[in-house]
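Please produce the structure of this protein holding geranylgeranyl diphosphate.
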Amino acid sequence: MNDDAFDPWARRALAEVESALERWVPADAPAGLGEAMRYGVLDGGKRVRPLLVLAACEAVDGDAAAALRAAVAVELIHAYSLVHDDMPCMDDDVLRRGKPTVHVRYGQAQAMLAGDAMQALAFEILTPDGDAVAPALQARLCGLLARAAGHAGMAGGQAIDLASTGKRLDEATLSDMHQRKTGALLQASVLMGAACGAVSAHDWRALAGYGAAIGLAFQVVDDILDSTQASETLGKTAGKDADAGKPTYVTVLGVDAARRRAHALRAQAHAALARSTLAQPARLALLADRIVDRES
Ligand code: GRG
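Below is the modeled complex.
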């Protein structure tokens, strides 16, 4: 598949995700909470995780309606993590997705609640009343998302990150932190999409390998962009981690070795897809390229 076929698909998929977020994130939650939630998740972001869910679902010819719910749920967890990460008690940032951060706009208490409510809403969306999603699939999707977001995944990785300020980490420790903090949710996006269809154990392992490789590649590239691009391009404050004494792939490896690492991870992702028997892995392969070649 070339970019000419990928781009219209991605535009359609993104439009579907935006319209589902618009429908499902409530404007009328009490006392301005809905406005803060919508500010935190609508109108911004690359939506990489939803695209991974939908591409993985298509690769296994899965249930598209369930995958749309999974795509929105993953983006809500991601958006909640950004809202909390930006707060003064964590990264203390004022710019996100090109706008003032949620706590700057609505205050810290409302930002904390908006993040909490987005997290809960993700699981509400995965468990609709009626027969829209089979009960076994609901449970599977909730389990995959909870494990990626919780103590062994994103929240655990964030705890290691906060404890690492000013420390020298070797590459293995840095990779472990980022596999949890950033990689776990990206990998879960792939696996949640795959769970929406019938997939053999062999292909599940291949997709898990693909997800792990692109998950880490995403963070390596994030660190490279953070040290080479301007805040206006990124829509967030550039260079903050290194300035705050946090180890990054660029501070640990240097920018050239970090670039080589990103390319090696892309090759690993492609190799994992090549090992699979998936009928339609091309969109996932192109997403790996986009993740490594991105400029913001
Ligand atoms: C608060 C539990 C908790 C976790 C926070 C994700 C995270 C953990 C912190 C964000 C810090 C950060 C900038 C990590 C680098 C990788 C990353 C997740 C970047 C942001 O994701 P993008 O580039 O953002 O997909 P958009 O805005 O495009 O959705």
